[in-house]
Structures are given as structure tokens and as C-alpha cells.
Design brief:
This protein has no helices and ten strands. By secondary structure, the chain is mainly beta. A hairpin with a 2-residue loop joins β3 and β4. The radius of gyration is 16 Å and the shape is globular. It binds FE2/S2 (inorganic) cluster.
């Protein structure tokens, strides 16, 4: 006899398309999009690092300004770190953690995503 899944208390997540997988390149150009964030529209972005897609609010941990130095360009010249164009804070592309500079331990806000069937989706609570 089939059983019902246990109630985990966690709302199911609804995937919302962000972009095709091909829109972001390893250590290179990212894709900008907007999300609902605490009742307002906020800038966000998705990048690819070591083969995996990662998404964050486009908001520096130092001052809440957008990071990209050209639209969609978030990596530094080494292509290993995300860099804030304003004062040069460095972030880990895989976690959004502050690695140095004026972010002083304040990392990026991680957005839940999944990548499947050639597309990247934002996972939104129902
Ligand atoms: S605003 Fe990003 S490092 Fe200052």
C-alpha cells in the first residue's frame, strides 16, 4: 500500500526559468535577471564556476550596489573570483563568501537554483 510522504514542514519549491544553460560561460559572462526580494524587485545574476551554475543577488556586501564591471561581467581577470567593480571586494564564485576587501566577511546572498535539460531555473517557494 502506498504511503504519503512525511510532512517536512518545508514548502515545495517551484522552478521558474532564468536562462538557457548556454547563456553563461565557465568563468566568463554571467546572466542578469530580477527576483522578488522582500517585497521589491532586486537585481540578481547567475554564473558558471567549475562546471556548476551559481546564483546570487547582485548586491555587494560592502555597499548594496551591483557588482558587475560591465553588464553581466562578474569575474576578475583570473576568472577564479567574483569582483565588485566599485571597490574590488572578492567573492568565492561557488559560495558567495567574502574572500577579501571591503566586504569584510559579508558574503553574497545565495539564490536557490537548479540546472536541468539545458536550462537554469530559480527555485521559488510556493
Ligand atoms: S561597494 Fe563593493 S567593495 Fe565597496
Amino acid at each position: 500500500m502506498p504511503t504519503l510522504p512525511a510532512d517536512t514542514g518545508v514548502s515545495p519549491l517551484r522552478p521558474e526559468p532564468i536562462c538557457p544553460s548556454a547563456a553563461i560561460e565557465e568563468g566568463g559572462g554571467g546572466f542578469r535577471f530580477a527576483v522578488d526580494w522582500h517585497g521589491t524587485r532586486a537585481a540578481a545574476f547567475v554564473i558558471r564556476h567549475l562546471g556548476r551554475a551559481h546564483a546570487y543577488l547582485n548586491r555587494c556586501g560592502h555597499v548594496p550596489v551591483e557588482l558587475d564591471w560591465q553588464p553581466g561581467e562578474f569575474f576578475d581577470s583570473s576568472r577564479l573570483y567574483l569582483v565588485c567593480a566599485t571597490h574590488g571586494a572578492l567573492y568565492d564564485p561557488a559560495s558567495g563568501a567574502c574572500l577579501g576587501g571591503r566586504c569584510e566577511g559579508r558574503g553574497l546572498v545565495v539564490l536557490p537554483i537548479e540546472e536541468r535539460d539545458g536550462h537554469i531555473y530559480l527555485l521559488k517557494e510556493n
